[in-house]
Write a structure and sequence with these properties.
Blueprint (H helix, E strand, L loop, with lengths): L9 H19 L9 E7 L2 E4 L15 E3 L5 E3 L6 H14 L3 E5 L2 H7 L11 H4 L5 E4 L9 H11 L4 E4 L3 E6 L2 H23 L9 H8 L4 H19 L6
Parallel strand pairs: 6-7
Antiparallel strand pairs: 1-2, 1-5, 2-3, 3-4, 5-8, 7-8
Helix pairs in contact: 1-6, 1-8, 2-5, 3-6, 6-8
């Protein structure tokens, strides 16, 4: 496939704006870690939009996001993604088919990956949206120094939207940036409530399976996600319009 400039593709330009806004909002929420971790969008089978390693999420700009190919050649932009970003994201996009992949070490979700047999428990309605949609990697495998690690993660994720990486962090996937970021946000909120509840030392009160299933399949999830990202972009348009530059 030849190079397609994202500046000439309205759908790709929309992905740039949405991804830059999501990176900035993730920073506001304290979901980032240094200049590490990556958000990415598969623009085409061999084109991937991803943040540069040097970019702090609080300063993300749509125009400074990178487009790389499936060999980690930078097609558009200056700088490079971290090698671990390429090694995780590109194999996961290609093998799972998920268009959007968000990887963070956000505190409460990551705390659950540090517990022996830690899982997201159905103790709050926010957890219910992930009922039956979480995979768990119990084997910490160090830094992702090769694409085989991304392939291993993809194999564990299968058709799920969330992958908890043991002693590491989480991967959240979706069809649009709005869908994936909405899940990322509510996943961290669900994990925060669970960790707080566990800290009391009292038994957790688990939501029955049939009620958790109803929480997962609520019909306005994607509409709510679009409204959430639109609201975020509206705030940034007023307070930090440089995200769109």
């Amino acid at each position: 496939m030849g190079s397609i400039m994202s500046s000439n593709n309205p759908e790709w330009q929309q992905a740039r704006l949405d991804l830059a806004a999501s990176l900035r909002w993730a920073s506001r929420l304290g979901l980032h870690e240094g200049v590490c971790n990556h958000f990415s969008v598969m623009l085409a089978p061999d084109r991937f939009l991803i943040n540069a390693h040097r970019m702090h999420w609080s300063k993300a700009r749509a125009s400074e996001l990178l487009v790389i190919d499936d060999r980690n050649t930078v097609v558009e932009g200056e700088g490079r993604p971290a090698m671990t970003g390429f090694n995780i994201h590109v194999p996961m996009h290609r093998q799972t088919g998920h268009r959007v992949i968000l990887h963070t070490h956000m505190p409460y979700a990551t705390a659950l990956t540090c517990l022996r047999d830690g899982t997201l428990e159905m103790v709050h309605q926010n957890a219910g949206r992930f009922y039956g949609l979480c995979a768990y990697d119990r084997d910490f495998n160090g830094f992702a120094l090769g694409t085989d690690e991304g392939s291993r993660m993809a194999g564990m994720m299968q058709g799920n939207r969330v992958l908890f990486l043991g002693n590491h962090g989480v991967v959240v996937a979706g069809e649009t940036v709005a869908d994936a970021f909405d899940d990322l946000y509510y996943l961290e909120r669900a994990c925060e409530v669970q960790v707080l509840a566990m800290s009391t030392g009292r038994p957790l009160m688990i939501i029955p399976d049939e009620k958790a299933l109803a929480l997962r399949d609520f019909p306005t999830r994607r509409e709510n996600a679009r409204m959430f990202l639109a609201a975020i972009r509206g705030i940034l348009d007023e307070e930090e319009p440089s995200y769109a530059s």
